[in-house]
Design goal:
This protein is of the alpha/beta class. The chain has one domain: Acetylglutamate kinase-like (Carbamate kinase), CATH 3.40.1160.10. Helices cover about 40% and strands about 15% of the residues. The chain is built from 9 helices and 9 strands. The chain has a 9-stranded mixed β-sheet, sandwiched between helices. The protein binds uridine-5'-diphosphate. Uridine-5'-diphosphate (UDP) binds next to helix 1, helix 4 and helix 6.
Length: about 230
């Protein structure tokens, strides 16, 4: 296998499946199966999950809620997703730990870097909930930061498009996909991979990112083995 320790970022929206809101149990199941395949190969897996299917901080301002308050609400939303995912992963036959950026002793452990690494070494899948625990960040930034902290080999951004395109493939029929691209080129072409905070963290720490379609069965396994899937940013 090419990658021994991965950080998988899943957006909250992905968990909705074809629903308009909330969590689609079939999608959770499907993701758990995909994660099991790489786990069985001996890969160490850490996951950051978003909360956009439930709540986003930017929504708050529109409804008259203070932005910071909204961001915390968004972080709590990620914990709901993380708990659902944890449960499904365990049902699928994996050992897991949920670590939170906000202390919530009754439902999860606080994030402690050394402990996180230990969990991975013991073969547990870890899920990072509640983002970094600070407002004005995103779960993409959480993915970059935690990946660096635990010395993951790569950040895998699972999305519903199969990589980074020259233009938005859902709008421009002539858009083509990059199989490889440099951090610098993403900047200079103004391409949208992650928010800039998240992206810059990866760049400055030489942490490669792969953007790929998480909904296609087998994709996660293939890319962990080193096959060309999605877009690799280095
Ligand atoms: N959030 C935050 N700090 C963090 C992570 C998340 O404030 O470290 C809040 C932010 O308001 C964000 C929301 O949690 O909008 C949900 O996360 P995100 O939008 O990244 O989820 P995704 O788009 O991946 O579903």
């Amino acid at each position: 296998m090419k990658y021994k320790r991965i950080l998988l970022k899943l957006s909250g929206e992905a968990l909705m499946g074809n629903q308009q809101y909330g969590i689609d149990p079939e999608r959770l199941d499907q993701y758990s199966q995909e994660i099991k395949k790489v786990k069985d190969l001996g890969v160490e897996v850490a996951i950051v999950i978003g909360g956009g299917n439930i709540y986003r901080g930017v929504q708050a301002e529109q409804s008259g809620i203070d932005r910071v308050q909204g961001d915390y609400m968004g972080m709590l939303a990620t914990v709901i997703n993380a708990m659902a995912l944890q449960s499904t992963l365990e049902k699928t036959g994996m050992f897991t730990r949920l670590m939170s950026g906000i202390k919530m002793e009754q439902v999860c452990e606080p994030f402690i870097r050394r402990r996180a690494v230990r969990h991975l070494e013991k073969g547990r899948v870890i899920i990072f909930g509640a983002g970094i625990g600070n407002p004005y960040f995103t779960t993409d930034s959480t993915a970059s930061l935690r990946a660096i902290e635990i010395e993951a080999d790569v950040v895998l951004k699972g999305t519903r498009v199969d990589g980074v395109y020259t233009a938005d493939p859902e709008k421009d029929p002539n858009a083509t996909r990059y199989s490889n691209i440099s951090f610098q080129e993403v900047y200079s072409r103004g391409l949208n991979v992650m928010d800039m905070t998240a992206f810059t963290l990866c760049k400055e720490n030489n942490l490669p990112i792969i953007v790929f379609d998480m909904n296609k069965p087998g994709n996660l396994l293939s890319l962990v083995k080193g096959e060309e899937v999605g877009t690799l940013i280095t």
